[in-house]
């Protein structure tokens, strides 16, 4: 159903690039049907054009008449200016997808011509390798066909989950921000391995393979995480000692608080934007 559709990105930063990389690798959308734009950074556009072979333009040069799906990928603080600059140009049947944390479909719908289909999307940077966990939520004017097209497009960068928009903040805390928690874990694993004499590159590979193996077990086996953890843990063995230290230093609580902190920030972004107080991000 995406055949002959033109997809444009408004914003060409880290998240847009990760999505472009995965989409191009998947081969589902021909490169000449992907347009990438930003506000002013021409060097970045040239880099994206050379790396991925997609069309690149400044935002003011976008051919709005050609665009079937417009993906908003600027920072949340820039959303209102971005909507203001497109709301007279966008076709009524262009589907707007936003990857912005904390920005609700209703906020966007209010600033677009009546009846515009808006889909809220939360991908993560593993889109780069087609391994994103991506959530999508329909706006008020989104048809089933729009959602089917969104699923088809986003399945080219990983797994897609359709969720109610009220769950978008917690999804963001788990999956949108989630890669950073695992990188943080890896920073510590690599450092600790290197301090004990392992070559840092070797420590990095060992840590990454261990996380990858555990993730694969979680995806492919039926046991619960608790059962899988118990299978590793011998009485009075090394794992029990490691887990005791994790509990003693608040490991479990720290993980829950990280997810809740990101969820809370996602909610705050929505309310700060409503009261025009969003200055960071
Ligand atoms: N990074 C991540 O892991 C994830 C990010 N997100 C969301 O993705 C969004 C982008 O994040 P990220 O890629 O990290 O940000 P970056 O700062 O890397 O990129 C922002 C981009 O937006 C462009 N931009 C700003 N204003 C406009 C405008 N009015 N019109 C067109 N382009 C504009 C900038 O262009 P220029 O450089 O020319 O100013 C730049 O290309 C955020 O809203 C974030 O919440 C969602 C999931 C994960
Ligand atoms: O940090 C952020 O706000 C964005 C949204 C999810 C991941 N990065």
UniProtKB/TrEMBL annotation:
What broad class describes the main subcellular location of this protein? cytoplasm
**Gene Ontology BP annotations:** L-proline biosynthetic process
Catalyses: L-proline + NAD(+) = (S)-1-pyrroline-5-carboxylate + NADH + 2 H(+); L-proline + NADP(+) = (S)-1-pyrroline-5-carboxylate + NADPH + 2 H(+)
InterPro entries hit by this protein:
6-PGluconate_DH-like_C_sf, NAD(P)-bd_dom_sf, P5C_Rdtase_cat_N, P5CR_dimer, Pyrroline-COOH_reductase
Annotated Pyrroline-5-carboxylate reductase catalytic N-terminal domain residues: 6-102
Pathway annotation from the record: Amino-acid biosynthesis; L-proline biosynthesis; L-proline from L-glutamate 5-semialdehyde: step 1/1
> Which EC number(s) does the record attach to this protein?
1.5.1.2
Keywords in alphabetical order: Amino-acid biosynthesis, Cytoplasm, NADP, Oxidoreductase, Proline biosynthesis
- The enzyme's first-digit EC class, named in words, is oxidoreductase
Binding residues for NADP(+), per the UniProt record? Answer: 10-15, 73-76
The UniProt entry, under SUPFAM superfamilies, shows: 6-phosphogluconate dehydrogenase C-terminal domain-like, NAD(P)-binding Rossmann-fold domains
**Does the keyword field hold Cytoplasm?**
yes
Any one Pfam family match given in the protein's UniProt record, by short name: F420_oxidored
Q: Which Gene3D superfamilies match?
A: NAD(P)-binding Rossmann-like Domain, ProC C-terminal domain-like
**Is-annotated flag, keyword Amino-acid biosynthesis?**
yes
- Pyrroline-5-carboxylate reductase dimerisation domain location is 165-268
TM ranges: none
The Gene Ontology terms for molecular function here are: pyrroline-5-carboxylate reductase activity
Annotated localization: Cytoplasm
- Got a GO cellular component term for this one? cytoplasm
Q: Which family does it belong to?
A: Belongs to the pyrroline-5-carboxylate reductase family.
- So what does this one do? Catalyzes the reduction of 1-pyrroline-5-carboxylate (PCA) to L-proline.
Q: Enumerate the NCBIfam families for this protein.
A: proC
What is the designated name of this protein? Pyrroline-5-carboxylate reductase
Q: Which organism is it from?
A: Rossellomorea aquimaris
């Amino acid at each position: 159903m995406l055949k002959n559709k033109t997809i444009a990105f408004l914003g060409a930063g880290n998240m847009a690039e990760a999505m472009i990389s995965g989409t191009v690798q998947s081969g589902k959308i021909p490169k000449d049907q992907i347009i990438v734009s930003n506000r002013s950074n021409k060097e970045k556009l040239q880099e994206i054009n050379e790396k991925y072979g997609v069309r690149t333009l400044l935002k003011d040069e976008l051919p709005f008449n050609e665009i079937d799906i417009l993906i908003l990928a600027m920072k949340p603080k820039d959303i209102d200016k971005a909507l203001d600059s497109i709301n007279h140009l966008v076709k009524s049947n262009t589907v707007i997808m936003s990857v912005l944390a904390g920005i609700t479909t209703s906020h966007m719908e209010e600033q677009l011509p009546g009846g515009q289909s808006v889909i809220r999307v939360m991908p993560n940077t593993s889109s780069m390798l087609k391994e994103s966990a991506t959530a999508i939520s329909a706006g008020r004017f989104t048809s089933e066909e729009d959602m089917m097209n969104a699923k088809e497009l986003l399945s080219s960068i990983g797994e897609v989950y359709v969720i109610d928009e009220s769950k978008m903040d917690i999804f963001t805390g788990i999956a949108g921000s989630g890669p950073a928690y695992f990188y943080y874990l890896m920073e510590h694993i690599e450092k600790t391995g290197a301090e004990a004499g392992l070559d840092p590159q070797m420590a990095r590979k060992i840590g990454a393979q261990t996380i990858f193996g555990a993730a694969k077990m979680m995806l492919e086996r039926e046991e619960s995480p608790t059962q899988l953890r118990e299978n590793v843990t011998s009485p009075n063995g090394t794992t029990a000692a490691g887990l005791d230290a994790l509990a003693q230093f608040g490991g479990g609580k720290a993980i829950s608080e990280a997810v809740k902190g990101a969820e809370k920030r996602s909610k705050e972004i929505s309310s700060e934007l409503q009261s025009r107080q969003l200055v960071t991000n």
